[in-house]
Structure formats: structure tokens, C-alpha cells
Amino acid sequence: MKATIITFILLITASTFSQQKSKTLQKPFSTKNKVISVYSSADSTNLRLTNTDNLKFSEIKQPLETQTCIFVNPSKTFQTFLGIGGAIADASAEVFAKLSKAKQQELLNAYFSKDKGIGYTLIRTNINSCDFSSDTYTYVDEGDKELKTFNIDHDRKFKIPLIKKAMETAGGKLTLFVSPWSPPAFMKDNQNMLKGGKLLPEFYQSWANYYVKFINSYQKEGIPVWGLTIQNEPMATQKWESCIFTAENERDFLKNYLGPTLNKAGLGDKKISVWDHNRDLLSQRASTILDDPEASKYVWGIGFHWYENWSGGEQMYENVGKVHEMYPNKNLLFTEGCVESFNAKKYQLWKNGERYGKSMINDFNNGTVGWTDWNILLDENGGPNHVGNFCFAPIHYDTNTSELIYTPSYYFIGHFSKFIDKNAKRISSVSSRSILMTTSFLNQNGKVVTVVMNQSSKKVIYNLCIGTSATEVSILPHAIQTLVY
After folding, report:
1. Average pLDDT, integer, range 286-313
2. Helix or strand or coil: residue 448?
3. Which residues, other chains included, contact 181 with Cβ-Cβ below 8 Å and sequence gap of 6+?
4. Among 157, 181, 168, 218, which Cα is nearest to 335's?
5. Is 314 designated active site?
6. Which residue, 18, 32, 399, 466, shows the most beta carbons closer than 10 Å to its own?
7. What is the DSSP string of 54-119?
8. Which residues, listed in sequence order, are joined to residue 295 by a DSSP beta bridge?
């Protein structure tokens, strides 16, 4: 009997080990019988996410130095993809309300349909007003520390209806995170929602309760809130809604107030991202907060923007990779970017789109899991914006001509968002020449998505290489391609 029991235990153990092994062993990627569908957008052409080629792999024994190559290795996997999207702040929602029903549906499909558009899955929205609001507002009466007057009636007019329609178009699969630009004026030392200022210590708990009220109010409207950032651009004193949090301020507010308050309210599952500002100070902010175990336990990730080149320097892409090396167990999320200084004459400026392509490739290659553009829709003035901070969006609506204007940025973003699925794994993708940039992802359905961007003013012939298989691909000057295989 004892021998029978031992044999049974050994069989169960062996079976369990075999099942675990089969789960961990992924089937190697094969190029056999694969067709590579090539989608292209190029400057000075009509190509916009256009299927320009369907190719097949053949054998390549050894690439030559004279050949330009993109080397993809699907067996080398990195971060898991969360999604790509944009912000539905007040401005986008107010402009959307001016569209005809047909134009509204066109815009919804353009962003949130995977088949008819570019398949956004991420959304950001504002808590209280921001610069892209028509006025300054909060959800409580002035001086109401207990938040007894809290209500989101303001958002029910424009923002909430658009978010709900976006969710419906996306099949209910949108990931929403929320960000405040400023607490109410009475909670700040400058008594003003604009022009910086700091949260007064006596209002730390009240402000933490505010996030809970907002999240619960949205969820009662049927809008699930996935996560939040603590403060938009916490080191910028702006002429619009802003509030300064030093790294120590943000750390202590998170660990002593916001984190415990969310947990106590049953909202401990909400994903908290710290920083939500440019790549320049990313490392210092991450270190200050994440080296404190009591603060770090509440942190899902680190959010960042791309405006560090205000100083005249280049964008600091490498800082994202350095933070990823320092804290590999935390997530990196691009939370905002747009082309500043609106000028209607530059609607179709290709360089604006290339800024997106360059940033997205660098950010993903440095460990970023998700990428969120700023406003999804603005008017012919780059607004509305109550402080005149007018900017570009991927799509503009001209209220005079009733025309939706698609800019190059829309198509550049689409080369990623339309083809990379949630939970895809980034895989190794390396260019042999600096004129070509690349990143690649492996979708759960087994399809590889490789994005290639040609930064040069000449047509380039390159080999897409996987092991000893390759195919020759042509990419036009200043073009971006997505290859799906």
C-alpha cells in the first residue's frame, strides 16, 4: 500500500512538472510560409497606413556589411505592452460636441476602432480643470474641506458622454487613468489654482479624499478607473493650473495619505504612477520615491512627458532606459506629449509626425509599457484653452468648414497602435544603420509587428532578418512602415 501511495505521488509530481514546463516553453517563432504585410506612410506621397507590399521570407546565410538590415529575434522578450492612446480633457470633449452625428462617429472610429481606425486602448482625463478647459473649475464649493459639496456635474455635460462613447466604440476595453493639475485654490499656499503654489499640509488628507471621491463618482457613472497619477508636471509653475510637489513632498503625500486612503476606500487596486513630468528629472524622482519601501509599495509605475527639450537640448530618451535598469519591477508609462505652438499652416508638417515616431520607438525600446498622447481632438485654433496655450492634436476640427483634419501625427501613432495588441511582448529589434529606427512586438496570436522608420531623405533597401531567413524591403524617404508577419 505504501509503495502504491509513493508511486501515485511521483506520478502526480511528474504530471504537474510536465504541465508547468509546457506552459513555460514557448513554441519557437518560425518564418516558414509566413507572409509579411507591409503598411507604409511617407512624406510627399498619398501613402497613409497603406498596404504597400506582401512579401515572403527566403534564406540568407550571412548578411554583408554592404547590406542594410533590421535584425529581429522573437526569442528575446522584454516588457509586456499595456496600450497606446490619448487624452480626453475638456477641450476635446467640447469640440466633439460641435460635430455632426456622422462626424462624431467618424472620429470615434478613427481612434477607437481597430478595424476602421487606429485602435486606441488608453485614455487619460483631468481631475479639476487644466489648461485645455474653457474655464477654471473644481468639484467642490470654495472652502469645503470636508468635500460635502463634491459632485461631477461639470463633467456630465461633455467629458463623460465622450468617454462613454469611446469605451463603447472600443468594445469596452479602454484603460482609463486620471490626473489632477491643481487642488482647489483654498487648499494651496498661493490661494490660486494657477501659477504653481503648493498643497498646504493641513489639506493633505482632504486632497487624498478628493481622489477617492472622483474615482468613485466616475465608477458610479459606469466608467472604470484603472489608475492615476498624483500630480501633472509637479515641478512646473505654469500660468495655468499647476501645483508644485518636490520629490520628498510627493513621496510623503503618497505613503502617508494617498496610498493608505485609497486602500481604506477599497481602491488599493488602482495603479498609481508617480512623477508625470519630463524625462530630465526622471531618475531623481524615481530614486527618491522608490528607495523608500513604504512609498514604493503603492507605486505601479513612473509616468513621463517629452517636453524636456524646452531648454534647447535634445530629448533625453536614455533616461527612461536608465530608470528601467534601476527599477526593473516598476512600469514606465508615457503620459503626455504633443507638438506645441499651434500654427494652422503646419497641419501637414511631416516633422511633427516624425517626432512621434522617434519618441515612441525610443521609449518602447527603453522599457515603456504604454504611450499616451495629449488631446485627441482640438479646433482650428489649437484649443479651446483658457490661457492661450494652443497646441496641435493628431486630429483637428475646423468649425468654419466642418472638416476633420488628420495630421501626420495620427498616422505615425497608428503605425503602432493599430497593430500591437495588449499583452504583446516587446522583442529584440536592431538596425544595422542609424538612418533606420526600429522596434518590434510579438502579439499573443503569434504575429510579429515590426516598425521601421526611415529618417533619411533617400529611399532605402533593407533586409528584414530573422535567424537565417530574410526578405528585402523598400522604404521611401522620411517614411514609417509596419511589417506584420
Report:
1. 97
2. strand
3. 126, 127, 128, 129, 130, 131, 193, 232, 233, 240, 241, 242, 243
4. 181
5. no
6. 466
7. EEE-EE-S---TTSEEEEEEEEEEEEEP-EEEEE--HHHHHHHTTS-HHHHHHHHHHHH-TTTS--
8. none
| CA 220 remoteness from chain centre | 25
Count CA atoms closer than 13 A to 388's CA, side-chain side: 1
The DSSP string of 301-345 is EEEEESGGGGGSS---HHHHHHHHHH-TTSEEEEEE----S--GG
Phi, psi values for residue 128, rounded to 5°: 65, 180
Give residue 9's pLDDT.
Answer: 39
Active site includes 233?
yes
Question: Position 411: which residue type?
Answer: Y
Strand order in the sheet with 395-398: 377-379, 395-398, 403-406
Q: What is the pLDDT of residue 23?
A: 38
Mean pLDDT estimate for the chain = 95
Percent of the chain at pLDDT > 70 equals 95
Residue 340 CA to residue 246 CA, distance in Å, equals: 25
Which of 94, 233, 241, 308 is an active site residue? 233
* pLDDT at position 259 over 70: yes
Number of neighbouring beta carbons within 10 Å of residue 93: 23
Which pLDDT value is given to residue 27? 80
C-alpha cell recorded at residue 113 = 476602432
What is the H or E stretch that residue 436 is in? Answer: strand 436-442
CA 20/CA 467 separation, integer angstroms: 28
| pLDDT tens figures, 312-355 | 999 999 999 999 999 999 999 999 999 999 999 999 999 999 99
- CB-based contact 124:87 (threshold 8 Å): yes
208: cell is 487624498
Place of cell 456635474: 153
Across 254-263, average pLDDT: 98
Give the pLDDT of residue 26.
Answer: 62
Give 53: exposed, middle or buried? Use CB within 10 Å, 0-12, 13-18, 19+. Answer: middle
> Would you tell me how many other CB atoms lie within 10 Å of the CB of residue 15?
10
Of 94, 308, 336, 354, the catalytic one is 336
